[in-house]
Each structure stands twice: as C-alpha cells, then as structure tokens.
Write a structure and sequence with these properties.
Strand order of the largest sheet: 3-4-2-5-1-6-7-8
Strand content: 5-15%
Distance between the termini: 18 Å
CATH superfamily: P-loop containing nucleotide triphosphate hydrolases
Bound molecules: adenosine-5'-triphosphate, magnesium ion
Order of helices and strands: EHEHEEHHHEHHEHEHEH
Structural class: alpha/beta
CATH class: Alpha Beta
Number of domains: 1
Number of strands: 8
Helix content: 40-55%
Number of helices: 10
C-alpha cells in the first residue's frame, strides 16, 4: 500500500492536486484509490462535485474511487471505540470513576486533533486499496498535527516513567485487574507506528506551492519540518504558473519566472503547472489537470 500526501500553505492547490491524482489513477490507471482529507473544514466534495461521508465510500460518477472527509465527531467516535475502555481501565484501577469518565476525556479540547493521525493510520491499514491519497489542510495546521503526535508519543514515555515511580503505591490501592503498564506501552507503540509509516518509503510527500517568494520561503520551512520527522519530500508542484506571455502583467510574469528558478535550484523534482482558465472542479476538469500533473517524478 502506498500513501501520497500534499503539503503547502493555504490556497495553493493541495486539494486540487489530491483530487486530480486520485481521479487520474483510478480512471486511467485502473487503481483502487482512497482519497481522504484531514481538513476539518474540507472542500473535497466541492472539488469532486460529489457528496462524501465520514467513512470510505465509493464516489458516485467516478470509477473505483473511494473518498471520505474526516470530521471531528467521527474522530472522537473512533477514539472512544479504540481507547475509551482502555483509558477507563487504567484510571479506574486507582481512582473511583464511573464510565461517564470516557465521555469526559473524549470531550477534552483538542482531543480530535490529537487523534486525527491515529485515525488516518487506522483507515490506511484497512486493506484493499492500491493507493491512499491524503489531502492535508494548510501547512500550519497539518504540521501542528505532526507536532502534537510527537508530543503525545513523548508524553506516553513520561507516563510510563511516572507510573513506574508510583507503581508500588498504586498496586496497594488498585481495585481492578488490568495492566496499565502494558496499555501505556501499547499506546506508545501505536504513536511510534504512525511516524514509522510516515517516514517509510511507502509514503511520498509532495509540497504544493505557487511561484511567489512567500510560497518559496514557506516551502523551505515545510521541507525542513517534515524532514525533522524523518519525512523526505519527493517533489514540489509549483502551481498557478502563468505560462503564456502575459503582456498585461509583465512584473508578475517576471517575478514568477524568478521564483520558478529558485524552486528549480533548491528543490528536486520540481513540476511547473500552468494557470487554468476556469475552475478545476468535477471529473473531466480533474482528469485534464491529472494529465498535466503526471508523472509526478
Ligand atoms: N493551476 C490552477 N489554475 C487555476 N486555478 C487553480 C489552479 N490550481 C488550483 N486552482 C484554484 O485555486 C483555488 C484553491 O485551490 P485548492 O482548494 O486546491 O487549494 P488548497 O491548497 O487545497 O487550499 P486550502 O489550503 O484552503 O485547503 C481553487 O479555486 C482551485 O480551483
Ligand atoms: Mg484544501
């Protein structure tokens, strides 16, 4: 199973690239494709011009394309299903709490953000797709997800140490049979599994940018940050590049050319994509975009 993700600042074309690649691979290459977004205010259904749910469903009007938009409620439900009982077992082994405690923890601010990567990991693990395409939200929030996941991983390490320190005391008060030590260890392993997957060769991360200096600077920062998580950037799509001589806007054209040069100099696998005359929504427009986009390397 392969995972392809698109990263970049707001409005550069991440969703368009994700949807176009997913459409092209499923329609032209005959692959079974899963397209998903972790943008909690998603636009994927608008770009595909199809209704999407919060679990993988075949997209009407497309062949072999499955898609979903993760929403907060779904993430929380999956969290409860996977961790709710275990968290309760750990806490109730030394504190007098009832099962309402699970909802209390699930209602903590930010919990959906903490578990969105876990849910992504879980969905990817569900077999049957040739490729999974991940549309990320604008860079600041998607990089934040990685940071939170890392903090969570480190936090579990701390939790283990803390638990060991007070274990003797807790053993004396424990009322139920459960092994918090083992559970905390498993949670930590899960968090590690997410990073291992993202840093593996099965994952191809692309940056989407526009030919503007600010986008170039942000792209370098994204590359740096991804690399700090062991994620190698496969290539850059410099989108919305005005190809044809644009006599009305000579300065814009010159600036775009200069910045395109910078991208070509500082990144590998740079792909320049033209500015489209018209909105890129719906199957036919996405297929047209796919033809310009591929091959990605
Ligand atoms: N090459 C292009 N030419 C013209 N318009 C484009 C091109 N690529 C994308 N667009 C348009 O730019 C807008 C933003 O694109 P898109 O939604 O894909 O960006 P995004 O990076 O996903 O944004 P966000 O960060 O808000 O999720 C859309 O209206 C899209 O149709
Ligand atoms: Mg988007």
């Amino acid at each position: 199973m392969r995972l392809v993700s698109f990263w970049g600042k707001g409005g550069v074309g991440k969703t368009t690239c994700s949807a176009a690649l997913a459409t092209g691979l499923s329609e032209i290459e005959g692959m079974k494709v899963l397209l998903l977004t972790t943008d909690l205010t998603p636009t994927l259904s608008d770009v595909l011009m199809a209704d999407l749910g919060s679990s993988p469903t075949r997209v009407r009007g497309y062949s072999n394309l499955f898609a979903l938009e993760l929403d907060e409620r779904t993430v929380l439900e999956r969290w409860k299903l996977r961790f709710g009982r275990e968290v309760y077992d750990v806490i109730s082994s030394f504190l007098p709490v009832d099962e309402g405690f699970i909802d209390y923890v699930a209602g903590a601010p930010g919990i959906a953000e903490q578990f969105i990567l876990y849910v992504l990991h879980e969905i990817i693990g569900e077999r049957g797709y040739d490729i999974v395409i991940w549309d990320t939200p604008a860079s600041s929030s998607s990089l934040r997800l990685l940071r939170i996941e890392k903090e969570l991983y480190e936090h579990m390490g701390e939790a283990l140490k803390m638990y060991l320190r007070i274990k003797g005391f807790l053993d004396r008060m424990r009322s139920k049979e459960s092994d918090p030590l083992k559970l905390i260890g498993e949670w930590r392993e899960l968090a590690k599994g997410i990073f291992d997957m993202l840093a593996s060769d099965d994952h191809s991360a692309y940056i989407v940018a526009t030919p503007e200096r600010m986008s170039y600077e942000i792209s370098k920062r994204i590359r740096e940050e991804l690399s700090s998580f062991g994620i190698d950037v496969k290539g850059v799509i410099v989108n919305k590049y005005i190809r044809n001589s644009c006599e009305d806007l000579p300065k814009l054209r010159r600036n775009q050319d200069d910045v395109a040069e910078l991208f070509l100099r500082d990144f590998r696998n740079v792909k320049l994509l033209g500015y489209y005359d018209g909105e890129i929504i719906g199957r036919d427009a996405l297929l047209c975009f796919y033809r310009d986009l591929s091959p990605l390397t």
